[in-house]
Fold these 4 entries.
Entry 1:
Amino acid sequence: MSTKPRKSRPAEVYEDYRSRSGWYLAAWRDYAGLTLEDLAAELGRSKGYISDLETGAVRTGRPATRFNRDLIEQVAGVVGTTGGRLIDVNPFNLNDQMERLSSVIARLDEAGQQAVLSMAESWAARTGTDG
């Protein structure tokens, strides 16, 4: 797998991604520093299949390549996010600290999540940043 560091992209790159049906896959793959080959290997799919997903390409004589929930969850796991975030969030606009915090919280059980939320609310109230 590629070890290319994550970095911010100019707005026009993001807009180029959004012009494609699978823009979120392309954006998150790029953000994670993965090539088409890397993601294809991780998912056990072909490079062409991933490219078709990203571009919405339809090949002659074959049905359109489409996402389904299982595939979205698999891709999300590979790129280090959730299925919902994969579809809804531009990874190049992320705050890295918030991403790390979100990742930690997601691994906690409900009681742990509530404890972190209470601690954060208490901290915000003490520092005068509670809104």
Entry 2:
Amino acid sequence: MAGPYAQPPADPFGHGALPPQAPGETTTRLRPVRERRTGRRVAVVVCAVLGVGLIGGALAGMWLAAAEPGKPAEPAGYTEAMDLWHNAPVDTLFPRTLTGPGAGPGASARTWTRIVVAPDAACSPAVLAKGLLATLGPLGCERVLRATYTDATASSVITVGLVFTRADATAQRTLGERGGLTTRLGADVPPALSGDGTVAARFGAGQRASWWLNAPADLPVVVTAVSGFADGRAVASPQPADRAMAAGRTDATAQSGLGHEAKGITVRFERLLRTTVAAAAKEKNAR
């Protein structure tokens, strides 16, 4: 399905004039406040009493529904999030530049620049690791969006994936339980997204060094990230981010901070998604 996401900018390096990161702010005029009339005061009081009773009943119903086993309350904006893959612009889902204060080894800062964007794709082994595809299939795997970033030194590359599903709130919460999705799926390394003419030109299956998967409980999305060296060197044994970040590691993957990159960027994208969902829900409610 075509949409704003399927139209990435032709020049990801920004040699030409870049479009603004966000549309201009719009405001809605407030309704004028009418002069009060004495004759309506009694009616207002009655309506207020009835209103409080109705609101109390509605809240009680919500609390009972939330407390009912197997039926947790759906997070705010959850339904709107399912359609972000074709409703949100590419620069919103995958910003041209992403900062990560404290995202590197020793809490060092990181900055990532987008260099490759892939068209939205169906859930398949070409864009998802087998274990994740098998896990999400029964839940309704909707669409996969991917982009590749490089760090400020252009020495590392990292492919980020946003996997949108039709999972209900209960199923989504279950995805991240029991030690997290990365632990549950084992050595299920996401595919890398290369880009001709970029520093990710040689980023393939053999160059994947570290990865991370996360399923936020409040969004019907799985965020994936896989990192590697920009020079195309092969990595014999890719490591999940938490292992690559362990103290005392002296291998190249750990020393270069590729585990920090993979885990840190998934956290940033979860935050971005929540911000985007909140804006979409606000816009919907304003209509």
Entry 3:
Amino acid sequence: MPSLRYPATAADYRDLARQRLPGFLFDYLDGGATDEQTLQANVADWGQVLLRQRVLVNVEGVDTSAHLAGQACSMPVALAPVGLAGMMARRGEVQAARAAQAVGVPFTLSTVGICALQEVMQAVSQPVWFQLYMLRDRGIVQALLQRAWEAGSRTLIFTVDLPLTGMRHRDTRHGLSAGGLKAKAIKAHGVLSHPQWLWDVAVRGQPLSFGNLSDQVPGARDMDAFKAWVDSQFDPSVTWDDIAWLRAQWPGTLVLKGILDVADAQAAVQSGVDGLIVSNHGGRQLDGVMSTAAKLPAIVQAVGAQTDVWVDGGIRSGVDVFRALALGAKGVLIGRPWIWALAAAGEAGVHDLLTRWQRELLLAMTLAGVRSVADIQPSHLETRTSP
């Protein structure tokens, strides 16, 4: 039964998304790798970071604005790339990009989004960031880079933690990671049991193809054929030499996403990238690794003076944004929260969520006695003591 309350949090939007999406799509968004231990730790560990409240400090004119990749933002938050976003709402990437622009934060388009970069760029006036994987066919990589540059994108988020796709058991149960008649029947049942999604997205949201790859991938309109192609293209032989090659190909801002180790962060700096994102792919790749909240401080200490360090994974509120900044991040990317809001309420939902998060961040700064994002420091955190 649809909820009659107003959504106020990411969790509220998650509940609404569960109601409105076919089960296989919701679990594609919501699930993680194997037993989902890292997925749970990503969320829980931010809750262990305690803020230090201060009073009677002049906090008139608190300012949440910042710069990410040289782009002015209303707060240090960007929408992370999410594959298949256009399956969650009609032309979903376009709706999310519009909401991000209205609030004043960057939007990142996934290579495996439904809407092509050109379509998204035509819908907004601010630059759209583009996300890419290293594929075996370097000609396709070069073509995508050229198209992104010509479309006006100047920031490339390059994902490095996907030499192979993680084991995501929810996708197996729903038939999303399998072919054959049984898998098709399971997915068809999920679609037919959600007639509103069927009409609004599956029918009115056409074409449901992988817009950025439609002229590169044989059978890009067929999910099973596309999965087979993607599996053949992920390249487990990629090394730092390939990042050097990529740096030579891309004249704009280059940020590596998927760094979880100090040694890798140091290698990223040596490769000449402009920034890195501490990330474990939202717990969707290797289960049992540490949360990003736990890994962030050491990476910041090692390379934070040399490059911009951002973080994603498990961030669920504006208070979590404050926590990440206090641990040394220059900014955060969010994935599941914005896609839940998109699935639940489209562009308006994403706009509402981001606006609430900005207010939460402002309140956290105010009650911590901080007037600017640049002033948020580890000293604004508490160390837990026994009662």
Entry 4:
Amino acid sequence: MGVMMQAFYWDCPQAENRVGGWWNYLHSKTADLARAGVTALWLPPAHKAGNVSGLSMGYDPYDYYDLGEFDQKGGIKTLFGSRRELEDLIGEIHAQGLQAYADMVLNHNNGADTTEVNDLDHVERWTLFRPMSGRFPRDRTSFHPNIYERWDNETFGDMPDLCHRNPDIYRGMLDLARWLVEEIGFDGFRYDFVKGYGTWLIKSIQEYRYERGGRAVSPYAVAENWDSERAIADWLQDANGWSDNPVGAFDFPLRWELKALCDSYGYDLRSLCRPDLLFRACPATAVTFVDNHDFRGGDTPEIANDKLLAYAFILTHEGYPCVYWKDYAVYGLAMSGTPHGMDALIRVHEELADGPSRVLWADETLYLMQRTGSVGREGLVLALNNHGGQWRGERVFTGTAGGRWTPAAWWSAQTLDMPQDQPDSAEGMAEFWAPPRGYAVYRWVP
């Protein structure tokens, strides 16, 4: 299915001294990412934000149609750049054979021009929006509560929540999606905070018949539903019922397991075999990930230790893996030109990771998994070792015979020594080893 990259992290333009220049920076890196095997870039919210406390990351939308061309809310450019720079970036993304995903913040707005008194509860709120683009104005009838819907799913902070049952707002959301796909050039969406509105809205956006350059476009989409396995699976069933363009969801439950693997002493690798984890229960719609912009301290810290163990897992198993710019570029986990980091694992995913997976062995400290492969992609075996003091291996049945298994990627917190090739037996048995607190990915050679 490819490898998505979240091409930003929280306050990345400020952290890297690129305020107003993030689009241009990504433009300069796109060709390298394509060569590494990345197939899609998830971009941060592109619209002009409310910017109530200065330039923001965009999760507080003000003018959806200002992508950095109108002088409002503190300036012309967004935190990331201008509309022209964004369009140039998307052009480069397409020229390199990649896709671009827009971050859609549809639940709430911020930075209104003035307050209004709500007709139903008589509460004064910041609800009058008169954006300089002249498109998609909003007032008190655009937000909850109103005559169309008094009950709201979930609110986000103290920002007013859009009421999508208002026909003007519903039409505005569809018009926005069409504009982003057909005019700006996006190929898909990441839906922010989907707990805040009904799945019917996403289904409507996904099923719309888009055209660009005379060709039909079916946008890919993934939803942020930060919840349990059962809640996410139920949401997917509701969102995708009778839909011909289903939406995916981030596998938050797997992410918590991966954090425990990396950061908790004595983690039992058998916990990774749980059948209810989203990537196992819903492999076609699960988007697996290790960290994202919302894990930045407090109750939701980043993974602190040995993240490559987690990346070895998501880049060899089912699901659509999403790798994180901060890990790749800032923390130096790409390790380009070596068999030890994210670049090598991305190659493994694109060249070998196909067919269903089966767990060959699992105990407290050793996990062996085989992808059975397909024509042209011969599959792989992942050996994951959580023992900090020694190499671990087991002899298991793979069903292959007359060849050998050779390491394609490996890493350890303690040694970067290359694992040895392992021959098949005539009975289809082979032995697989992983270094201490590390992993090895093997490919089959006939």
